[in-house]
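--- STAGE predict ---
source: upstream dedup step, 1 unique chain passed
mode: sequence only
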Amino acid sequence: MAKEREEMLPIAEKGRHLSANSYTIMLLSMTITTSIFFLGWISSVLGLSLAQTIVAAIVGNGTVALVMYLNGYPGTKHGIPFPIQLRYTYGYKGATIPLIIRMIISLFWYGVDGYIAAWAITEMILVLGGVSAEATISTAHTYAPYIFVAYLAFVCGIGSIKKIRGIKYLDLIAGPLLLVFFTIYTVYLLFFAPTTVKTLPSGVGWMSSSFFLAIAVQTAWWATIATNISDISRFNKHPENPNKTLVLPHILGLILPQVFGTALGWFAVSLTGTMYSPIDVIVYYAPMPIIALLGLVFAALATASTNLTGDIPAVGNGIIQLFKLSWRKSIVIATVIAFFVGPWWAFKESLDVAIYLTEFTSAYGCWLGPIASVMVADYWIGKKRNISVKELYNPKGIYHGFSMIGLSSMAIGILGEYVIGFMTNSLKWYIIPFPGVELSWYYGSVISFLVYFVWMQFGHKR
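--- STAGE serialize ---
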């Protein structure tokens, strides 16, 4: 048996501290962040109507919630983290490949979420300094990289010492306060603000690239957490019946707030008649500076909680597993890398952020779909929920080496996405509009699932 670090060992039932309610709150803390309103901003920039924005949010987040349930089930039942969970699907050694992919994406999100928080803090400082709304918005991205460094140092300090339990109180207050604030603020923009144009986008075609792209962004937004949800769900109580903590919380903690927050973001941005981000909207249209300051405080806190609960566990556990380092050293290393991969260098104005997020989520979604799909197919169909936790920690056991069925199914799914993307974007002979690379997460997931299923029919187990 190989020696594993404590963080990688299964959590016994007596060590679980998340009830259905607390798990829901933790999901809310990740979901309700500044970036949730960015989804509505992106939909508005793409020209979607409110109905199209809501449908895209329901489809994308409904799909993600289903994957979170299916992938979170073994984490809750067996108490194992994501790096260990990968072993029964991809093999003891083969698990390293999807682990590295997921870890790289988390590193980028660590930087992205961190920059968004730093952006809000920068505008907060400028508002406190009495800078005008116009000057605050136009100069924020000049100063945000410096605040980004200080913010990362703060998050690193909290995350490396406290881990998940230490942000319990931040989880409880930051997200809900931001959602309440932005709801009231949107109502103010809709009915009372004298300078809003109240001219809303009429929509794009339901089979248009813009609509499919909105679905893809919604899906990829939390497809990251759906892949390694066991890092969190392993703390859930009731391992004898994971449904008690996995079904309703994903509806209440993910789907509903995502749809509602997206709609709020769409309204807030569309009502301005500009391409201002939700952060800029708070600053520019607030009736007084103290209101803007309050909203920015909530935005920064909510984004910080997402960094701590969503980004850091995936990165930290990945580094621990790959390099056998302590949790603290892993988080310090992750934070340094997050600075260099963070997009602080790419932004001159707020619209650059929307463009970056759209392209970023489309780029990594094509890798996550096949990884999660094969995990689901293997656990629920291939192994019928019967795995040996003890053997997961044995490098020479039944899950040894590389699982060719898992790795090949994942690889073929990713390759299939690129083939479909190439054909639909390069060959214009088709008559019926067909979504191309925008929905690569879905194509890759289906292809990988089917390839795995066919492999199983021929009796291949490894």
